[in-house]
């Protein structure tokens, strides 16, 4: 088991399949994009599957979530999902995507064994979308979400980040849209993970502000705190339910104390936190012919070094060198 020195056990593995993306969301990337990881540094499908198999069979990982960059840009994605679905004990398989290309891939991914999906959608206005993501792709995203629901990946979860002066006036509109379509909306507080280091604590739209904006139009009842477990979202029943809205207050109400996650980057580096300032290299030993036991030792040493919290609110906080797009959500 991957238990850290504070007694938390990591059972949820987030796997970044590529650092590339076809959008340029301003809370994530600069307009010109980034220097992508060189192909030889990326884990091959076979290397990745070996590490995931080890995680599932020897390290107690029960949930695998594929992320990016944009995971749908990874060639052979359905094949990877299929190989993970064949592992025993079979892990839950989820994905976080921007939805572009999902209209084509939702069916094959579901057939390959994908259980759940989260799609990022920060606005339902085409002009706001262009401002925020710097690409005119709202229609593709909406088609992708609809295809996911139709393929049985329901309930589709929708992730939204609000940026002041860009889409912070659209919270209620987003919720109305998601209620209408049966999507489960969750707002995520913007975290300091953008490549261009533009995050400012005092500019961030807080969970409290989001709640206030939604409460002007909807009756929100707090869900049962007991049921939250390690889930980062605080859930509210909307207008008496059954539909809900979630708020993930990563910055103003950190949930590090119940964190059950560990992360693997596309270039084979293990991270014990989104905000970790060090990584454990799995790729080098893997390519040098390491035994399972040697690789397991790397996972153990990574989790042993996990800090109690992300420290965003500490005066000495330093953003990690790797941006969100190269870590995965
Ligand atoms: N802060 C909060 N959420 C972010 N995401 C990407 N960058 C940030 C950030 N800086 C979101 C994406 C996606 C998920 C992986 O995290 O919109 O939904
Ligand atoms: Fe791409 Fe996701 Fe970053 Fe937007 S947040 S640029 S969709 S990786």
Protein architecture, described:
The protein is of the alpha/beta class. It has one domain: TIM Barrel (Alpha-Beta Barrel). It is 28% helix and 17% strand. It has 9 helices and 14 strands. A 12-stranded mixed β-sheet has the order 9-10-11-8-7-6-5-4-3-12-13-14. A two-stranded antiparallel ribbon has the order 1-2. Helix 2 runs parallel beside helix 3 (102-112) and helix 3 (102-112) runs parallel beside helix 5. The two termini are 23 Å apart. The mean pLDDT is 96. Bound molecules: 5'-deoxyadenosine and iron/sulfur cluster.
Largest sheet: 12 strands, mixed
Rounded to the nearest angstrom, the distance between the terminal CA atoms is 23 Å
Elements, N to C (H/E): EEEHEHEHEHHEHEHEEEEEEHH
- Overall pLDDT confidence: 96
Shape: globular
Count of beta strands: 14
Ligand names:
5'-deoxyadenosine, iron/sulfur cluster
Gyration radius over CA:
19 Å
- Poorly predicted segments: none
In percent, how much strand structure appears in the residues? 15-25%
The top-level CATH class is Alpha Beta
- Tell me the CATH superfamily: Aldolase class I
What's the domain count? 1
CATH architecture: Alpha-Beta Barrel
Q: Which class do the helix and strand fractions yield?
A: alpha/beta
Contiguous helical run count? 9
Strand order of the biggest β-sheet: 9-10-11-8-7-6-5-4-3-12-13-14
As a percent range, the share of helical residues equals: 25-40%
């Amino acid at each position: 088991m991957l238990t850290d020195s504070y007694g938390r056990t990591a059972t949820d593995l987030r796997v970044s399949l590529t650092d590339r993306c076809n959008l340029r969301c301003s809370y994530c990337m600069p307009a010109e994009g980034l220097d992508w990881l060189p192909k030889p540094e990326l884990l091959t499908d076979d290397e990745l599957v070996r590490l995931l198999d080890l995680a599932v069979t020897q390290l107690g990982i029960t949930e695998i979530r594929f992320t990016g960059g944009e995971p749908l840009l990874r060639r052979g994605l359905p094949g990877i999902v299929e190989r993970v679905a064949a592992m025993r004990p079979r892990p839950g398989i989820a994905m976080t995507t921007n939805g572009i290309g999902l209209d084509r891939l939702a069916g094959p991914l579901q057939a390959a064994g994908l259980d759940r999906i989260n799609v990022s959608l920060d606005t339902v206005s085409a002009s706001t979308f262009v401002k925020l993501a710097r690409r005119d792709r709202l229609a593709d995203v909406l088609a992708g979400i609809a295809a996911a629901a139709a393929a049985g990946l329901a309930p589709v979860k929708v992730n939204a980040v609000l940026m002041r002066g860009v889409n912070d006036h659209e919270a209620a509109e987003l919720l109305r849209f998601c209620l209408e379509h049966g999507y489960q909306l969750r707002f995520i507080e913007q975290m300091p993970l953008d490549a261009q280091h533009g995050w400012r604590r005092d500019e961030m739209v807080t969970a409290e502000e989001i709640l206030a904006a939604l409460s002007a139009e909807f009756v929100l009842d707090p869900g049962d705190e007991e049921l939250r477990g390690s889930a980062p979202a605080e859930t509210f029943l909307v207008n008496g339910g059954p539909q809900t809205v979630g708020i993930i207050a990563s910055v103003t109400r950190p949930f590090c104390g119940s964190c059950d996650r560990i992360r693997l980057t596309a270039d084979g580096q293990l991270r014990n936190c989104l905000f970790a300032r060090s990584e454990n290299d799995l790729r080098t030993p893997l390519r040098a012919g390491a035994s399972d036991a040697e690789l397991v030792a790397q996972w153990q040493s990574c989790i042993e070094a996990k800090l109690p919290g992300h420290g965003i609110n500490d005066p000495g906080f330093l953003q990690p060198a790797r941006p969100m797009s190269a870590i995965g959500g």
